[in-house]
């Protein structure tokens, strides 16, 4: 029997990218932007620093992409569901619930990374790759604006103040996730995930479906 070690399978570029981003999220969430270096990420992920710089351009670029990639996956998953729903229609409330549930779980799974991003962008100078054109999250929300404009009529949601309505909906879910420990006491009285998602869905659906285009609406400013 040969004692030669079995050759390791060569990882694809996409596998290396996903592993690097996953590792970066863990380290940035645990240590903050300043405390986690590209060398730390490279060692933990089993890649070279050169690979990180080749794929993301800089530490700031890696940080930005680590923040936004889970949201991109959420949006891809949600719009895939919407494509399916065009063939198998569901009620507007069911669509709202799927949005709330997917977004809630995405944000909850990446809460530490999002908090690190908020801290660095609010309290320290981050050499962002966005070049002064808003946060990476606001950039991604533009894609949601386009979808809402196309889908709201099909769902029966009329007279929406897009993009403000979109950001109110997003902020409601994000606020419940990020401020959970400030809003609720820990222990047995803490509401379950199901209760929180159900209540956000009820609030959001009621607000969206109650809009009446015949009501006078102030001109957006």
TrEMBL record:
Q: Which residues bind DNA?
A: 37-56
Give the matching InterPro entries. Homeodomain-like_sf, HTH-type_TetR-like_transc_reg, HTH_TetR
HTH tetR-type domain spans which residues? 14-74
Keyword Amino-acid biosynthesis attributed? no
Instruction: Give the matching Pfam families.
Output: TetR_N
| Keyword tags | DNA-binding, Transcription, Transcription regulation
Q: What is this protein called?
A: HTH tetR-type domain-containing protein
């Amino acid at each position: 029997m040969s004692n030669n070690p079995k050759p390791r399978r060569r990882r694809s570029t996409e596998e290396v990218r996903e592993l690097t981003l996953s590792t970066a999220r863990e380290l940035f969430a645990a240590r903050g932007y300043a405390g986690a270096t590209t060398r730390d990420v490279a060692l933990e992920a089993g890649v070279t620093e050169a690979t990180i710089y080749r794929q993301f351009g800089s530490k700031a670029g890696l940080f930005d992409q680590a923040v936004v990639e889970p949201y991109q996956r959420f949006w891809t998953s949600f719009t895939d569901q919407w494509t399916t729903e065009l063939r198998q229609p569901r009620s507007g409330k069911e669509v709202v619930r799927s949005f709330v549930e997917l977004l809630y779980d995405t944000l909850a799974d990446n809460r530490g990374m999002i908090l690190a991003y908020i801290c660095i962008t609010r309290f320290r100078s981050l050499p962002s790759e966005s070049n002064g054109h808003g946060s990476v999250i606001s950039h991604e929300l533009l894609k949601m604006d386009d979808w809402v404009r196309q889908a709201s009529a099909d769902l029966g949601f009329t007279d929406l103040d897009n993009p403000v309505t979109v950001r109110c909906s997003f902020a409601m879910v994000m606020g419940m996730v990020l401020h959970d420990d400030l809003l609720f006491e820990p222990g047995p009285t803490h509401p379950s995930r199901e209760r929180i998602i159900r209540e956000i869905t009820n609030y959001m659906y009621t607000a969206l479906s109650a809009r009446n285009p015949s009501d006078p609406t102030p001109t957006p400013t």
